[in-house]
Amino acid sequence: MSEGEIDFWFSTGSTYTYLAVSRLDKVAARAGVRFNWRPFSVRAIMREQNNIPFANKPIKSQYMWRDIARRAALYGLEARVPVPYPLQEFDLANRLALLGLAEGWGKPYIVASYRRWFVDGQEPGREPNLSASLAEVGQKVTDAVERASRDEVIKRYEAATDEARKLGIFGSPTFVVGGELFWGDDRLDDALSWLRHGSLKR
Amino acid sequence: MSEGEIDFWFSTGSTYTYLAVSRLDKVAARAGVRFNWRPFSVRAIMREQNNIPFANKPIKSQYMWRDIARRAALYGLEARVPVPYPLQEFDLANRLALLGLAEGWGKPYIVASYRRWFVDGQEPGREPNLSASLAEVGQKVTDAVERASRDEVIKRYEAATDEARKLGIFGSPTFVVGGELFWGDDRLDDALSWLRHGSLKR
């Protein structure tokens, strides 16, 4: 991370991350900030830490969907909640994100796959979302999935998860500014404030 | 709840609730809104729902303290974190809050007991916090604890918890505006916006 940059750690599969990926480019342009998109496996870390926010918690889950719907509207995003959760192809979705970011088609792919999830109810990493979102960024599904399944990508995914673990990250999205962690889409303003002032200001 | 009012459901013992109780009167005056302070047992509900946010989660807990410290500074509040957690006298602290609100000394008592917790590291509901915070609002500890331990107060505490349960409340603080739940000190702006516009606006 260098000056004017925020590390954006996320997993496709996190629900609130929809709000972050879908508005991050606009926020970056408006704030004059660069975000480094860092996919990792929040699922691996949450399992290690016995951190189970929604499974078998119907009341809290119901609130989560409502909260996301209200906040999506605030950001001008569609959200036909609830959507299928948790993802069946969580790791493939995130390895594709990692591959795409390295090859230059990552951001629009991630945003497109989230849009199909939250607007059309199609899970990222599975058909029909997979082919449609990859086609949208000019990628063939068979080739992209083959490349995303190579040892090299798997190792980079594990290394990213290990880096996140060492930083103390336990949830998605997490914004990191000079060693300070800001967890949750709702902490993006705090992260921007920290980058600018080294403290929270309104 | 009537027009211009927000129900403020909380438990003394919730960490983030420090940020809410300590600034709520200022927010009410600035926004021209009345908050109905409603103590309940978030602990009872969280146990029923197997909702364990921090126990045995050192990484997430560490983040929580840091997040509270940063946000306390934003609101001009002291917070010498971490503080003793969880509270040993959780129920007494909340029955005293309920009694005090009925008798007219509740709000300053709650704010004072939270201040001693977060600034001096003294748990609400136990000595020396108990006597000092009660004295600050003109109450004798023996008398107040006796009244807070009567069946009538215990029943009202259970009834409030049941009311919260039926509303779908699962955490503290929760702001309720016309049936819409807003969970967390960081959703206070959302609650105010909902009261004013029936939607989130910035």
Structural account:
Two copies of one chain form a homodimer. The model of chain A has no long low-confidence stretch (mean pLDDT 96). Chain A is 54% helix and 10% strand. With 202 residues, chain A is α+β, with helices and mostly antiparallel strands. The two termini of chain A are 24 Å apart. The first copy, chain A, has helices at residues 17-21, 24-31, 42-48, 58-74, 90-103, 106-120, 129-136, 141-148, 151-167, 188-197; strands at residues 5-10, 34-39, 174-177, 180-183. In chain A, helix 5 packs antiparallel against helix 6 and helix 6 packs across helix 7. Chain A has one domain (5-197): Glutaredoxin. Chain A contains ten helices and four strands. Chains A and B meet through helix 4 and strand 4 of A and helix 4 and strand 4 of B.
